[in-house]
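Demo today. Your pick:
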Amino acid sequence: MTINEAKEALDKVIKKARVHLYKPIQIAEILHEERINGSIDLLDLETYRTKSRKWRDIVCINFLGRTSTSSARYQDDIFNDNAVPPNAINALGEVNKATGGCVEKYIYDKFAERYSQMSTALSYCRDNNKDSFQLDKFLNLFWDEPGLRRSIDKIYEIIVFALFSTLVEKLEVTITVSYNEENVELLKEFEDFSNKVICINSEVSEFSSLAKINRVGVTNAADRGLDMWANFGTAIQIKHLSLNESLAEEIVSSVSSDRIVIVCKNSEEKTIVSLLNQIGWKSKIQSIVTETELIDWYERGLRGKYSDVIGDDLLKVLADEIVNEFPTSDNTEFLDFYKKRNYPDIEEFKVND
């Protein structure tokens, strides 16, 4: 494979990657290992297929604070013929070694560029207050930037979480757990269980706690199902892209709750309802929330009657969750790593047209 073809393959993977760029970083670390230690044969995939995940994870933990949670099979897709196969990696490796790491630098420059765009979104949250923040403008930062569009699902999730969790907290919602006192003898038989698991016993017949909404956490590109769950029984699925019958069934069947809230774009609502009816899952859906409703609720939260109670906390949760999801948008670990590798002194990766 020519170096031009290899670079095209690499650029294709970078373009398709989400903000974290796990797969391109894996390629960078394979090239780094071969250049520094010479312990692998770039044409022999088995010398680095598994090891390279660990090399990538060591780097990602340093400045992302997390690693890929994708299946091994999904991670290995990077080596497929339609991604960056060994012959492409070998071609990249020759140039990388000859230049002291220009391909590694190129990949990490793309990573920095992507996170610089994410920092712009974070700055929008922090530079605006409850009087000036506009949710539609915030969303457009992602729709208008090709490098961020692949992560729009996570941004929707953060937007929904910030609003829902803030409202539940400010409403001081509580949930109460109790049991049918006709079953007191059964309770006594399993009182050690009820004390540890349900927090009730034969002397204390009910237990109350504050309601809370939680994010499931960072997931991989192939994950479906639950995005958020509430300790009062509701499961929340965020869907911003086209939904077909197969995916609709996969989403609903992968969540055991019978009180699912789906958040989607306005244009998808009728399609989702129709599909759920077709596959017989409509009864499991508690409600569907549209993007228009989210924008309206944000408007009320930031500039409505109770904005002084909700507004500042809403924006704080929004900004905090962006940092939590995309740590490099707000820290210096990546810059330290970049300098330690001497990438600023390495020439740019260029190929002949």
